[in-house]
Amino acid sequence: MLLAVDIGNTNIVVGAFDGERLVEHWRIATVADRTADEYAVLLHGLLARKSMTPAQVRGVCISSVVPSLLTTFGELAERHLDAPAVILSSAGATGIRLRAENPREVGADRIANAIAAAELHSTPAIIVDFGTATTFDAVSGDRELLGSAIAPGLDTAMEGLVQRAARLFSVELIPPARAIGTNTIASVQSGAIFGYVGLVEGLVQRFRNEMSGEPCVIATGGLAPAVAPHTDVFDLVDLDLTLHGLRLYHGLNQP
Fold first, then answer.
1. Pairwise CA distance, residues 98 & 94, whole Å
2. Can you give the C-alpha Rg of the chain in angstroms?
3. What is the CATH number of the domain that holds 85?
């Protein structure tokens, strides 16, 4: 069994693979100062609930946008799973070309997404990953990661709004019946959901204008279900895209 670990700023997503099949996945809160032992306790409990054991883990592949946790999960893999850890980076074999001015600046999760889009779906592609930040990545028909746009995530934007506007408050991120809200809750929901849909559609169109061919537009990330159903800009939603990218990267770089 391979464990794919995607460490984000808000959540850590762990996927368990049996060959190419994702058999289970879990989402836990990112706590930067939590130790390898503490994460091991969490992971062992999650495995046990699905009748899995650490002894079944033969490899671990990790992507992280939280540098301090790379060491933590590397230690977890070595001490608690006795499995070699592969760290996804721009220096490894990816099967794609990074066109960024400084490839080391490209987030590991975005590289994983591009690998999975190229291998499992089609190129050219535009990948929209809804997380703490919402990232837009362009992949050419020649499997080149051309570049990106980075916007505040939906939750991040809402938190900023509530913190800075004294009379506004957090609301459930569901669409109201109409764009024109007649109370504060509906008005905030309209601005959050429909306003964010407008942001996504606008940036996707700008990407299309600058790319060759007809890109496949893919939505992924934990907040994709809050936005994707309210627009027809996406050709598909693949919530496990990053985990599959980690699996594919591990296949190219395993010890």
1. 9
2. 19
3. 3.30.420.40
Q: What is the pTM of this model?
A: 0.91
| 155 catalytic residue (yes or no) | no
Give the span between the Cα atoms of 39 and 245, in whole angstroms.
23
Task: Please state the φ and ψ torsions of residue 234, each to the nearest 5 degrees.
Answer: -95, 135
Residues forming beta bridges with residue 7, ordered by sequence position: 12, 64
Catalytic residue among 109, 137, 155, 238: 109
Query: Taking a C-beta distance cutoff of 8 angstroms, is the pair 191, 168 a contact?
Result: no
Supply 60's token pair: 């671990």
Which tens digit of pLDDT belongs to each residue from 8-33? 999 999 999 999 999 999 999 999 99
Joined tokens for residue 246 = 């980690």
Rounded to 10 degrees, what is the CA torsion of 191, 197, 201, 204? 110
Residue 40 has what DSSP assignment? H
Q: Are 60 and 42 in contact (CB under 8 A)?
A: no
- Provide the token pair at 177: 């019946």
The domain in which residue 83 lies consists of 2-90
Do both 86 and 155 map to the same domain?
Answer: no
Q: Within 13 Å of residue 185, how many CA atoms lie on the same side as its CB? A: 7
**pLDDT tens-digit profile of 60-85?**
999 999 999 999 999 999 999 999 89
